[in-house]
């Protein structure tokens, strides 16, 4: 129990730390950040429940006012910007990534983590992001979906990185991959 809480806090901190990587802001106000890689790793390493809790802890800290999002943003104001869907989707995406990872026990860790990251950390997260853009930017579903296409190449790279990092962690310390070891 204590180890689980420590890992949840550690991975919430990882998402925050990845917000320090310089962001690239697109013309419609949505930044490309490394924080979604942290969300993917929450799921691939910690599994569904712990990964979702780590991302939820991160979200609660941001809403409480800590400037942990890329660019030093935090507080309730993040719920009014075009990134609201992505932000709200972090815990669900981490949970989904972990869920998919847990279902692929027979597959190599690298492949399972990359595929789980694509399904949970990209597909699920984009679903939330598109809805958020529809609401805030007053776009239709097709327009909002087209806006997120700018993120696809970078997020594919992040999913592959999540696979490689998770596999490296598995080789170095197999017990650390809770999505495979309980």
Can you characterise this structure?
- With 182 residues, this protein is an all-alpha fold.
- The chain has one domain (2-178): Arp2/3 complex 21 kDa subunit ARPC3 (Orthogonal Bundle).
- 70% of the residues lie in helices and 2% in strands.
- The longest helix has 29 residues, at 109-137.
Summarize the model shown:
By secondary structure, this protein is mostly helical. It has helices at 2-18, 35-46, 48-63, 84-103, 109-137, 141-148, 152-172, 178-181, and strands at residues 24-25, 31-32. The mean pLDDT is 93.
Helix content: 55-70%
Whole-number total of structural domains: 1
What is the H-and-E element order?
Answer: HEEHHHHHHH
Going across the major beta sheet, what is the strand order? 1-2
CATH class category: Mainly Alpha
Task: Summarize the helices and strands and which ones pair or pack.
Layout: H1 2-18, E1 24-25, E2 31-32, H2 35-46, H3 48-63, H4 84-103, H5 109-137, H6 141-148, H7 152-172, H8 178-181
Antiparallel strand pairs: 1-2
Helix pairs in contact: 1-2, 1-3, 2-3, 2-4, 2-5, 2-7, 3-4, 4-5, 5-6, 5-7
Summarize this structure as a short list of keywords or feature phrases:
about 180 residues, mainly alpha, Arp2/3 complex 21 kDa subunit ARPC3, two-stranded antiparallel sheet
């Amino acid at each position: 129990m204590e180890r689980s809480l420590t890992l949840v806090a550690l991975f919430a901190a990882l998402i925050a730390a990845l917000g320090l990587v310089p962001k690239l802001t697109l013309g419609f106000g949505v930044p490309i950040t490394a924080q979604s890689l942290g969300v993917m790793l929450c799921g691939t390493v910690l599994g569904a429940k712990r990964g979702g809790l780590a991302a939820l802890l991160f979200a609660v800290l941001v809403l409480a006012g800590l400037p942990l999002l890329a660019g030093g943003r935090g507080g309730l104001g993040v719920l009014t910007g075009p990134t609201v869907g992505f932000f709200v989707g972090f815990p669900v995406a981490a949970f989904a990534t972990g869920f998919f990872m847990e279902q692929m026990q027979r597959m190599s860790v690298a492949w399972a983590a990359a595929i789980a990251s694509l399904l949970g950390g990209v597909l699920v997260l984009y679903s939330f992001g598109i809805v958020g853009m529809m609401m805030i930017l007053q776009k239709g579903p097709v327009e909002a979906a087209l806006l997120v296409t700018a993120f696809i190449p970078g997020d594919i790279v992040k999913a592959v990185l999540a696979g490689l990092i998770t596999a490296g962690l598995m080789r170095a310390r197999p017990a650390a991959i809770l999505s495979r070891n309980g």
